Automatic annotation (TrEMBL):
SUPFAM superfamilies: PLP-dependent transferases. The keyword Transit peptide does not apply. The keyword tRNA processing does not apply. Transmembrane segments: none annotated. Residues 14-360 form the Aminotransferase class I/classII large domain. GO terms for biological process: amino acid metabolic process. This is Aminotransferase. Its cofactor is pyridoxal 5'-phosphate. Its EC number is 2.6.1.-. Pfam families: Aminotran_1_2. The lineage of its organism: Bacteria, Bacillati, Actinomycetota, Actinomycetes, Kitasatosporales. GO terms for molecular function: pyridoxal phosphate binding; transaminase activity.
Amino acid sequence: MARRAAEYRAQGRRIIDLTLGEPDFAPPVHAALAAQEAAARPLGYTPANGIPELRRAARHALERDRALSYTDAEVAVGCGAKQVIFNALFATLGPGDEVIIPAPYWASYPDMVRLCGAVPVIVPCSAESGFRLAPDALEAAMTERTRWVVLNAPGNPSGATYSHDTLAGLAEVLRRHPSAMILSDEIYAHIRYGEGEYISIAQVAPDLRERILLVDGVSKAYAMTGWRVGWGFGPSELVRRITAVQSQNCTQTATVSQIAAVAALEGSQEVLAERCETYRRRRDAALAILRQSRHLETVEPDGAFYLFPRLATSDDLAAADTFLEAGCATVPGSAFGAPGHLRLSFATDIATLEEGCRIIVATLDGIPA
Ligand SMILES: Cc1ncc(COP(=O)(O)O)c(C=O)c1O
């Protein structure tokens, strides 16, 4: 849809693009300055697993934000959270292995699993359940072939987070299936609108620590998607295998990006709260418009920067086409395993966002935008 929106724009048509999956902010100034300074020095290769300063900064940030401690040998650094996840799956999956993926999901998970020759097992989670995986649904999906269970909170595209109790319920199920690993993708942990601290399954179930890969990075929190720095915390044997895969595909993530990531993690964190507040204002403005439509039901997201309304029609592909023709690009829910929904990104300025939402509501309800 983003590509089609760009084509329409090239033809001179005005298209509001609500498909974006990345922050519309610049990186923190101290990160950009650290990169500028580093780029003028001779920078060679780094260890496949990144510079020690980055592993240390990532560990300290996790201690600071989520009160979880890991050793240096328990951190894997890659070209974004995406590569760490791919490396982990590639290092552990074989033909016929199964990976449980709650839907709606980030579209990359099932494709990565298939690329590794394994089988994605999709577990639908309804809007009524707040798009959260329930413990009994997890239990029903587990088999002796289950190698990984994916948890992503705040979720892309749902924005849903998990309560302590739900995570405890999921952990109870996971204890009964000791051969399954848990991939906790926490890349949006800093973009949340609720009260209180982020809760990771690694905090709720410390006894499962040796089975959890907790993934994070600078992309979303620090608006550094293009810098390609992410990491995972997990058992040292898994980290060793992830690093082995890393070293034979792209060696390491860019040295200058690693240095900028250290600065982002160690510098002032004020920008995180400021940006959350901006996202919250955008979310509320968009919700206020979308909720005027009789044809949309929109759950308020707890985090991330997406709205995921349910359409009155089940044909989300046709709906997204209609909205594009009317001037607003969105992503159909089918791309995330949730037909009948639409993903709207609010990683864009409020005026543009409101205009896009008005186009959608006007198109659905037959009223002028
Ligand atoms: C849920 C989720 N995980 C991981 C990523 C990838 O993050 P990175 O840029 O660090 O590879 C994204 C990016 O869209 C995402 O939405």
